[in-house]
Structure formats: C-alpha cells, structure tokens
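Re-run with default settings, no changes from the original entry. Doing this only to confirm the output is reproducible before filing.
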Amino acid sequence: MERRSDRTRAAILDAARERFAADGYERATIRAIAADAGIDAAMVMRYYGSKEGLFGAAATFDLRLPDLAAVPRDRLGAVVAAHFLQRWEADETLMALLRAGVTNEAAAGRMRAIFAEQLGPAVTALVDDPAQGRRRAGLVATQVLGVALCRYVLKLPAVVAMTREHLVEDLGPTLQRYLIG
C-alpha cells in the first residue's frame, strides 16, 4: 500500500524535475517547487534537506541505452544517435541536468557520473582496451551533449530546423567512428 509520504515525495520530485528543466538550477526555488507540488516549502526541506539534495534526488536519470552488443556493428552510430535524440525529447530530467550543469558544479558532477557509469561501460564493451573505451565514450558524449545543447537549450535555428532523421544521418557517422573506429 502506498503511503502518503511516498505520494508527497513523488509529487515533490515531479515538480522539481519540471521546475529545474524550465528554470535551471540557479533560478528554481524551493518555494516554487513546493507550490508546484501543492505543499509547504518546509516539507521539501524535511524530505530533501536542501536545494542541492533535492536536485540530486530529482536528477537520477537512466539513459536506457540499448544493448550495443546486439546492434549490427555498421549501425552503431545511427542507433546511438537516434536513441539520444529520443531520450532528450522524452524526459525533462536530462535537459534540466544539461542546463544546470553549465553553471552548477553539483549538476555537472551528476551529468559526468551518469555518462561515466552508463555510457562508459556500454562503449568499453565494444572494444578490447578499457582505456580506449572510456576515451571513445567521452568523445560520444561530446557529440550528443553538443547536439542537445545546440538543439534544445540554445535553439540554434539551423539545428532546430533539422528533422530527427537528418540529425541521425549527419551525427551517426561521427558516432560510428568514435564508437568503433
């Protein structure tokens, strides 16, 4: 049976994710998040202790990477490009992390951890040398984060105007080279 405190925590996290995505870490306030969740700000502090604690809880994110070992090797770049575009568009949490990570060290650290813990092992499994795998994963991250920043945050007109298919077509070969050479 779900307890009231579980519902309250879930409401706070939902409101925090939306507020951090919309306003960024710096401008989002505990009061605004509490108001969005329909509770008193003291409850947010009771459950999460601080804005940074709340952000850390709200910024949990699963990249939901496909099993890259099951992808035909000649399609890896396109599959990864399409996957990341879908993830950026489907979940505000990753966008909030990207926005906040530019100006907030805690958010940047969380983003680094997500990519190191999830993308790193997936890419490393594709190559024989773990150091090379980590380097390749870092290069993949530069591309997917750069596209996300330009398309969804900075909204560069030429990048925003591209269809998802064109982005995959253009980004895929670069990711392919980074993934397996």
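The chain has a mean pLDDT of 91. The radius of gyration is 18 Å.
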